[in-house]
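re: ur question from earlier - yeah i can do the single chain one, its not a big deal. heres the input i used so u can compare w yours
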Amino acid sequence: MQYKKILTAICMSSALLCVVGCGASSNTAKATENNAAKPQATASSTNVNVKDELVLIKGGKFIMGSPDSEAWRSKDENQHEVTVGNFYLSKYEVKQSDYEALMHKNPSEFKGAKLPVESITWFDAIAYCNELSKKEGLTPVYKIDGTNVTWDLSANGYRLPTEAEWEYACRAGTKTPFYTPHSITPKECNYYGHYPYEIEGNYFNSGSMQTQPGEYRERTVNVDSFEPNPFGLYNMHGNVGEWVWDFYAPYAKSQNSIGPNEGTMKVYRGGAWNDFGKHLRSAYRAAHNADMSSFGVGFRVARNAEPGKDSLTSTLVKKNLNKSKVLLAYYSWGGTTEGVAQKIAGHVNADVFEIKMQVPYSNSYHTVLDEAQIAQRQDARPPLSTHVKDMSQYDVILLGYPNWWASIPMPIATFLEEYDFKGKTVIPFCSNGGGRFGQSITTIAKLIPDATIGQGLTVHYSGGSSLPSDIDKWLDANGVKIN
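and the output i got, formated as tokens:
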């Protein structure tokens, strides 16, 4: 059956769908508009016997993506109408006690029985769904053959939600950036609360904002924390990002798209404990390598409400890469990232290249904050004064930058778009003041989709006494030869 035909069956039958070195918005709609024409969710079941923790989400049509007027929207959030069928979704992110009991391991960085499991790959999440199905006497949804995963649409077991299902459930009938009628606050979800939605433009005058900076907890919280959204779902914004079924790609022009059937990156949604408010928006799309984990990514489970038909196969594209020739490229504003790059250079045989702007940012800390956020908001590409003579000779690029406003400095975007990275491995390292990578790795991956993104290294400011061993572990994990 053609992919498009399968996709239609999914939709209609049932199953679908901190600053440098480290937002109350004019785009926030009124509460009455925010909650207009709200679809329904209920804990009652159709003909499926489900746990109390699962909520029946009654399907319908909705506009997926964000309007052009939404602050900090990404180019890959183009609005399109999607139809989802009825499905079940867990009220909670999968907690560590359940994951450990079933999988006999707990890779999470932050340990706690009721904390969400994190630091797991997309494949780990798929395997858990199958094991939970078996435990409860249900038909496993996924057939796993190496890196190929086939989804049996008729199976009654546990699965990941699709990207469309996830956004539909998160929005719960709303059309605004968050499911709340205002910009979401640190009292309502767990994120880098010092940087609520749209603070970037009000950093030195946040007193005028409707949503004020608040607590940054610097870790995950229990899965039943805060009030649920209108559908009864907890932590759809923040705490951990959540894996979904789909490979990442720009939305297709056709309706009901769930992405291509092959790729290297899977989508995760919702934002995490270390993300800024702008990255918690209902429409924001994050992506990560399907076979890599992150301290900010977990998942929640879904089930069909009625059986679907046929199957859908997900094929992970893997590249056999030569990692013999290495370029260490970095952008540094105040010298912190440069210091980290110099330390890395002592551990690996690499050519070193500094990314420099034709017109550098201001030397003033306050001024550069404004310049950096304005450049990000405009998606600017500042011209560079330095250029790699022959990028084709390099197999691996160790790419360094400071975490600016939870993303990359825009000279990095200029650098990435100047060369052909197809078939290359780009391995990020990032200096930060507490937000770790923010969403910088997702941003890099979207800019160079034909490259392989390696496991990143996050360095708090200039690093501590463990930095030399951290560098060696990072290089070894990425298969890069250490001096």
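The longest strand covers residues 425-432. not sure if urs matches, ping me
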